[in-house]
Task: inverse folding
């Protein structure tokens, strides 16, 4: 066993989601409508990932930035309640906590995000001492973090030099520029975890096949998530195909990719065979879809085990 205190250090974005739910119609300028439900929840892909990975039993610490307001207090409390070490989350004096307001009509949503302190978080916030306390570094949402993105290559280089394993989920680029230098970055990323659309855009290719072959010589492990079609792993010339666990009763798929990442990395950091990591990732992605939102099905490990058995016939 390693003497490190932390298994996975998550460096990422943090925000609150304020969801106005079940609107009859989209609001019009100058008018007012009533929402029949309102939710204020822990948002952000990185927080969903950290929270669910911690519930699975991995020791997780988070590094990121929030403000000094009530939203910050909720984020810190919600992460801590799921066992995430929040001591390295910086409370900024110069920015408010990031907030996404979602207006939800039927199956669709319109969203407005105020990045706030997320815009300030940079690689300089991640000290060498913090890296040295962890076995693995995970970064998500590169394009949502403008101060972190330019320092990403040197951050991953620093992590590799200090002996950590690494993973990156790029997530969607709202600007649709897809300007990550994959040739520099991917050799430093042990597990690259995009979804199929993100990978095609990043590689600048029409098909998944072309995208994967174009990166085969520079990437270490690529895991492509593909919704209810499951996931595909490429390591050099080796491919592993993982079907999705069939869920006939999907609540929503918010956070499914983050839960897949949590399930995969929970076993990866223990040194498990890649096929087992893939199966556990797909199981956790599927479990996520049984409840609304990204963290509800991962309230505690007893619930996760119960859902795995009752919904998918898997004993964990
Ligand atoms: N409807 C679904 N039924 C069962 N499993 C699903 C479903 N949607 C997603 N998953 C699982 O979660 C993983 C990640 O979901 P996906 O939507 O591809 O990621 P992202 O959220 O990053 O776009 C999938 O690879 C799959 O294993
Ligand atoms: Mg995703």
Result:
């Amino acid at each position: 066993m390693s003497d490190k205190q932390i298994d996975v250090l998550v460096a990422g974005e943090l925000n609150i989601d304020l969801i106005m739910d079940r609107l009859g119609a989209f609001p019009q300028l100058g008018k007012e409508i009533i929402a029949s439900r309102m939710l204020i929840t822990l948002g952000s892909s990185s927080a969903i990932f950290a929270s669910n990975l911690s519930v699975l039993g991995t020791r997780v610490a988070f590094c990121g930035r929030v403000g000094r307001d009530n939203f910050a207090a909720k984020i810190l409390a919600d992460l801590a309640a799921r066992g995430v070490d929040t001591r390295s989350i910086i409370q900024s004096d110069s920015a408010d906590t990031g907030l996404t307001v979602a207006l939800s009509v039927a199956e669709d949503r319109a969203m407005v995000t105020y990045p706030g302190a997320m815009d300030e978080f940079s690689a300089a916030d991640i000290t060498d001492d913090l890296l040295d306390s962890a076995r693995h570094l995970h970064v998500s949402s590169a394009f949502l973090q403008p101060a972190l993105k330019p320092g990403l290559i040197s951050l991953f280089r620093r992590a590799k030099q200090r002996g950590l394993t690494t993973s990156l989920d790029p997530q969607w680029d709202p600007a649709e520029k897809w300007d990550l230098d994959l040739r520099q970055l991917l050799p430093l990323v042990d597990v690259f975890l995009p979804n199929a659309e993100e990978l095609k855009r990043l590689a600048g290719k029409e098909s998944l096949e072309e995208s994967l072959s174009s990166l085969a010589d520079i990437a270490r492990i690529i895991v492509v998530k593909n919704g209810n079609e499951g996931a595909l792993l490429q390591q050099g010339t080796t491919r592993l195909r993982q079907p999705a666990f069939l869920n006939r009763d999907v609540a929503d798929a918010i956070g499914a990719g983050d839960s897949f990442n949590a399930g995969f990395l929970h076993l990866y950091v223990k040194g498990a065979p890649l096929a087992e990591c893939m199966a556990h990732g797909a199981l956790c992605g599927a479990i996520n879809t049984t409840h609304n939102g990204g963290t509800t099905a991962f309230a505690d490990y007893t619930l996760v085990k119960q859902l795995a058995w009752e919904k998918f016939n898997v004993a964990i």
Remarks:
- The radius of gyration is 19 Å.
